[in-house]
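Record type: monomer structure entry
Structure origin: computed from sequence
Chain ID: A
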Amino acid sequence: MPFHPTKSRDYGTTKELVARIIDECGGVKSAAFLGGRAASQVYAYADPAVDAQMPLDIAMRLSVASKSSTLAHHVAAISGGVFMPVNPHTDPLADLSAKSAKEHGQLMGSLIEALQDGEICAREKADLLARIDQSVRTLVSARAKLAGDVA
């Protein structure tokens, strides 16, 4: 059951973000244990009627413990970007680069085809977005491998 199901939180607010992080790490009791706080304090962090704010170090500790990317997605969004985790690849850099170029070329062809009638329907949009995400993941994986960030 989601945290505080009867409390209304506007999506994207700090309180809603904190409630999601608490849920993702297993609920209030788990968050209290991992964060070194009392359960009542953890409840307050997500309660829109209470002025208490969860410290960043606790939000990060809970995110790491639960392998949650909620905080990363939020920070990327307020910074004007998007968060896309890098998928570790064992492929050599040359193979990743070739795969990236192939995906990008095919994607651009599909995008041009979709635009020929002057509009992109919902089905085309969903397919193109999924393919763009995959292409970006492959390119970022090649970048990370080149930079030595990922094995």
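Annotation 1: The radius of gyration is 20 Å.
Annotation 2: Helices lie at 14-24, 28-35, 39-46, 56-66, 70-78, 93-115, 122-147.
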